[in-house]
Amino acid sequence: MRALIPHPVSSLAVAALWLLLNGLSNGQLVLAVLFALALPRLLPSPAIPSPRLAAPVVAAKLVLVVLYDIVKANLEVAVRILGPESRIRPTFVWVPLDIASPQGIAVFASIITMTPGTLSCEVSEDRRWLLVHAFHADDAAAVVADVKSRYEAPLREIFR
After folding, report:
1. Worst-scoring range by mean pLDDT, 35-44, 79-88, 115-124?
2. What is the per-residue pLDDT across 86-115, written as a single tens digit (0 to 9) for each?
3. Strand, helix or coil at 129?
4. Angle at CA 146, nearest 5°, toward 144 and 152?
5. Residue 30: φ, ψ to 5°
């Protein structure tokens, strides 16, 4: 099966995108399958091997935590924006990274950026630090501890 579909995720994405762009009909379905089988063969092998999802239950829990945090952060940011400007204390903090996987670091940075009020700005060259901008932080150490415990710890299990 691997010989027929060397990149199954890419093949599925190509077929789905083709059908989304062109509509569902018998002819378009045939073209989607042909493109799904042919186009991924033209892709180079990935430079970084795909990670294995080591803890799917932890991943599902992390998704719920992130969704909850997005809603909560939206409300907190709205309250701060609508209140007096003097109540906002933006800051930059360097978060030490314990996660080693490049994909894990990318997901960690993305989660931080998706959560309103925080933004991932830079990963150090040695991939040991992540610069994060916090819209409001009374205590920079608390921001670091929070993102490490809520997001990085589960990601370390998922991308071990």
Report:
1. 35-44
2. 888 999 999 999 998 888 999 999 999 999
3. strand
4. 85
5. -65, -45
The DSSP symbol for 85 reads G
CA torsion 44-155-76-85 (nearest 10°) is: -70
Q: What's the residue count for the chain?
A: 160
And the tokens for 29?
A: 């379905």
Model confidence at 9: pLDDT above 80: no
- The residue with tokens 């599902």 is 60
Quote the CA–CA distance of 19 and 49 in Å, as a whole number. Answer: 28
Query: Residues 6 or more apart from 117 whose CB is under 8 A from it?
Result: 73, 76, 77, 80, 134, 135, 136
d(CA 23, CA 144): 46
The pLDDT of residue 50: 63
